[in-house]
TrEMBL record:
GO terms for molecular function: nucleic acid binding. Residues 238-373 form the DUF4268 domain. It comes from Limnobaculum eriocheiris. This is DUF4268 domain-containing protein. InterPro entries: DUF4268, tRNA_endonuc-like_dom_sf. It holds the Pfam family DUF4268. It comes from the Bacteria.
Amino acid sequence: MYKVDRPSNSLHSLQEVSFSSLGFREREHLQEWLAKNPQALTKKDEKEDELLIIQKEFAGFDDTKERLDLLAIDKKGNLVIIENKLDDSGRDVVWQALKYAGYCANLRQESVVEIFQLYLEQYEPNEKRTAAEVIAEFMGWENLKEGVLNRKGTQRVIMVAANFRKEVTNTALWLMQFGIRVQCFKATPYLFNDDVFVDIRQVIPTPEAESFMIGMAQKEAEEQSASSSSELQQRHYLRREFWAQTLEKLRSSHCDLFNNRAPSTDHWLAAGSGLSGVLFELIFSQKDARVQLNLSRGDALENTWLFDHLFEQKTQIENTFGAELDWRPLPERKSCQIVYSQTFDGMNKEQWPAIIDWMIEYISRLESALKQPLAELAIKLKQSGLITEGEEA
């Protein structure tokens, strides 16, 4: 790996080193890096691969004192067991990870929520939402009744180390033949002067091979999947009906954000802000309605950068909006949000006209309050080089 020296238009070699030589430890450093930046273990712009860390040093196994390093869920509701080794994977990491996957396979949905609630209370005491609400939002559900967490045979394993022994990689490849999703990520530290860089990349399976394998697995799952429950179908029907009415009224209003949108069965409707990955959203649920700006660019650091710069203008933005907003930095997840909500009974169709009027009024206010700040930040992003070639701004 090389560092580009712009003034001399040359490359400087980075020195590959070991974590232990730098004084880094597995639990205090590597594990914490991944807990705070789980996107390091996902493909850029692959929404389905996003991870939500729900526990560290999880020891909730009966009759054993063993602890798995990190426990997460992905966008399909699968539990993901993450085992970290520092400079060498060791011989037993696969067996260790499979044991934990076997233990976790028995966790019921309510247990998964309880585990995450304990995590929030210990590590994110400022989080106002419950574990169930955070998980539902991460999954894109209105609530946890819309889907199932930790279905049979869906547990995943991720192993992270600077070097993997041959017996580990061979076993991982063999396990994948039986439908067990195993990934090996190589974490390589580099030193340049006093700066330390870490390159984290998937080595087993290769990204190209994994895409094919996942596609085949999804096809098989779809073929075996039963049709949705009547309750879920009814909820989808109601949402489509609500959004059809909402879009009809939006088209006759002064708000043109959603002019090109069609009715959806989702509980949300999104429109571009002019900045890639930054969306204005309408949220319709059984208990409330929300308007929000969702910062969900592919890089979590960019989302945090945008959120912090907007938060610096909080007073001006809220004065223009006309009310206090709910600012959600969500530091350990890939998106940040600015939200305004109102309690409604979404299942009562008689309230729909009031909900729709409320949405149109406040999404218009939100757009007006954020239009200029977002335009200014788009220019700063271009100047910083964070906006890629061809990106809308």
